[in-house]
User: Fold this.
Amino acid sequence: MTQTIYDVLIIGGGPAGLTAGLYTSRAKLRTLMIERMILGGQVMTTTKVENYPGFPGGIDGPDLMMRFQDHCQEFGLEVTYGEVENLIDRGDHKALVVDGEEILARTVIITTGAEPRKLEVPGEQELVGRGVSYCATCDGAFFKEVPVAIVGGGDTAAEEAMFLARFASKVYLIHRRDQLRATKLLQERLFASEKIEVLWNREVVRVEGDARGVHALELREAGTDKKEALAVEGVFMAIGVVPKAHFLAEILDLTEEGYILTDAECRTSMPGVFAAGDVRKKILKQIATAVGDGAVAGIMAEKYLVEELGQ
Ligand code: NAP
Assistant:
């Protein structure tokens, strides 16, 4: 029996992947999406999305992603689950090794996104799940009426600090500089919260705890040797993200930080392979830009099938 060759294979089911899938399925290209865990990507851990157009008043991240999925289903997008291990170029088609099995496709769109960066200090790894977390939306409610800390100065840290303030008795936002990177609107809201205290110019050097969980952080004043202890029962890391493209390191051109290099039309260094969303090197990581990328990649895959493969 000959093996199916899909027209388009999409790796990753966040906003970029689902948009690419919507475009290619609607164009009647046989499309398979491969997702590792759950569809929706990082947006699934966002309580309220306020800057995606069309939803005045905001929309919950999971609700928005459910709409994306429903929309793709209208056009017959196929979805399977598994971990992609390798991508092989065979000229007129590509082979993806997924959990040891090959899946074939004429074009591939990589939308694997990014995951939270680790702080890499002593105690962090040992206490994951016992007070150390990378997702306030997922774990914040476990920390009722106790002091917690969030590390970072970007949009994620600001949003998650406000989410944590709903439950915790006190939220310390620990930032390594004297200025936040978060947008002005989020900063205004953050500074207006009586429960949140920003600890400027501080670095976390150690997470302290035991089998019962985290009980303190050791902080250092940036650029000095001055150390202090901060009593908290939870610490949330929000220090940015790293791209999920490790499995492509020897296959595609990546930046030093591991982002996939593409041109403006989302083409990677391998013909017929496109990248969209947070996994590709670009200036702005937003749902709106992931959606834009997904649309471009979907259309470019269709164009490649027609112009390069004569399909
Ligand atoms: P980010 O913007 O890259 O910010 C990371 C923060 O962590 C920075 O303040 C950085 O400090 C700090 N940091 C990085 N490495 C550190 C380390 N080793 N130790 C201590 N601090 C460290 O990351 P993000 O907040 O996760 O946001 C990622 C992207 O998603 C951004 O483009 C953001 O705009 C977007 N986003 C948007 C929204 C929204 O639109 N509502 C919500 C969430 C995220 P420095 O400032 O000193 O570099």
